[in-house]
Amino acid sequence: MTLKVLIVDDEPIICQGLIQTVPWRELGAEVVGEASDGEEAIELMESHEVDLVLSDVKMPLMDGLQLAEYISIHLPDVRMVLISGYDEFEYAKRAMRLGVKDYLLKPVDIDELMKLVSVTHEETMKKKKKDADEVLNHILSSAVLGHNLELDKLKLMSDRDVQYQLLGSELKDYFDVVVPLPEDEQHQFKIRWKNLVEKELNQNKVSSVSFFIDENRLIVCCEGNEDVQLDAAKYTQIVQHVEEKLGAECFLCASGSFSDPEKAGDHYKALINGMNAHPHINQKMFEADRVSERTMDKEFPEPVLTLVKQLKESDATGIHRITEKIFRFVEENKWSLEEVLSSLLEVEEELFAELDSARPTRLNPDLNLTIYNSYQGLRSLFEKNLMDYHSIKQNAACKGPNWLMKKAVTYIQDHYSSDLKAAEIANVINVSPNYFSQLIKQGTGKHFNDYLHEVRIGNAKILLKETPYRVFEIAEIVGYKDYKYFVQIFKKTTGCTPTHFRKIIAHTEISGSSLY
Predict the structure, then answer these.
(1) pLDDT at residue 308 in the model
(2) In 482-506, which positions are buried (b, 16+ CB within 10 angstroms) versus exposed (e)?
């Protein structure tokens, strides 16, 4: 940023002398105008941005002290330097009472003036940056939190023609690069990343503030103008520089530019949508407004139950092949990470339902998708869970037939009311139908159908005793669609009809005797 200087003196030769003698550009300064008195100086300050006023004391119409008084009241951020002679000490005392801190004696010592300009430049730039950062931080935090902007804070920049832009950045493979580090090193790594982004922007004359809204999501609010507005090529170069110095890959997503700070919230939403699309865009730098609409298929390449069956029957090679198919499909259809995670959890829920062991928690509904922010990250967790599944299942199989029998009996007791078939249970415990028939005979002493009748009739007896359901309703509840067949099986099993059984139960309860 350049220090804007206004020279005020009623003698043109002095104005020109100061303009031509002082190396303004080397001092980071620029003379934006010259005036012959205080009134003309005020007119110039109304149309030009001015940081420093160098003014003579004695001038016609409005002198230097009157100008100093106006500036102290109306333009307190403008720094005033008065130039006067040795015999005008009273002016100096009055100037100090008006808040003028800098006073140069005639003839002006150029070295002293240059030193004063350098100090003023440094102090003014620090204050401008602080004010700009305050505004940028307010715009950014309001957009992220969804709060209304405080207009009094925006007044700090109301006289400037600026453009704003929001940027979002994430590291690739954060779960491999940062998560394994000790906690203090993780913090240092992220601060270094943040500082590098801001430094690269600053070197391109773009002011910025940034903060993390999640573990691996850095949001930046930038301020620029037509002269320093960055394009996609420059942003790509910035990403490359950050990666080289950080030693990690990252991406950058940019919102559209906007001049009205109240539009920041809309641009922030568009930025987040753009960042969420990164897994299927896979570019170092892209613009949020150019993210295309997804053509998402709502289901995996095959129904969940089909995939579960395939995964049950697969070895390590088969697992790799199936997951390759799944993730190729979601990438082609541009699924979001949230959608992928939800579907993977559905598959795992079905897969692990048959095991006594709890499902691994690597994938869970609360998984931070800024850490595992790629298809590969989710795929890695999914494949580890699948390998755990087969390991658990293999260990269970080593326990022998008793464990399989327990699983089969539990499944029968949970599903006896459905149209249950031996082949279905064999599939659940992952054995052949013939082996299941042998297993159920060895474990219960009965054939499958006989054991199923025993379970159903046992539950029917409970319903006849404890509920007012009619007999045909109970038949349907326990899995018999044919009422007459139910009565036949019930009589064969208990020696009496369901109706007679209920009467016996009622009589025994009244008499207090036992049925058995």
Answers:
(1) 86
(2) eeeebbebbeebbeeebeebbeeee
Q: What is the mean pLDDT of residues 156-165?
A: 68
User: What is this structure's pTM?
Assistant: 0.66
> What CATH number is given to the structural domain containing 438?
1.10.10.60
For residue 288, with 0-12 CB atoms within 10 Å meaning exposed, 13-18 middle and 19 or more buried, which class applies?
Answer: buried
Residue 260 has pLDDT above 70, yes or no: yes
Q: Is the pLDDT of residue 86 over 60?
A: no
Write out the DSSP string of 257-292: -BS-GGGHHHHHHHHHHHHHTHHHH--SEEEGGGPP
Distance CA 323, CA 315 (A): 12
Work out the average pLDDT over 141-151. Answer: 85
Distances in Å between the Cα of 468 and the Cα atoms of 36, 454, 472, 474, 484 are 108, 22, 12, 10, 20
Q: How many domains does the chain have?
A: 4
CATH code for the domain in which residue 261 is found: 3.30.70.270
What is the spatial distance between Cα 108 and Cα 13, in angstroms, rounded to a whole number?
13
Which CATH number covers residue 37?
Answer: 3.40.50.2300
Domain end call among 354, 381, 397:
397
Percent of the chain past pLDDT 90, that is, above it, reads 49
Q: What is the mean pLDDT of residues 395-401?
A: 60
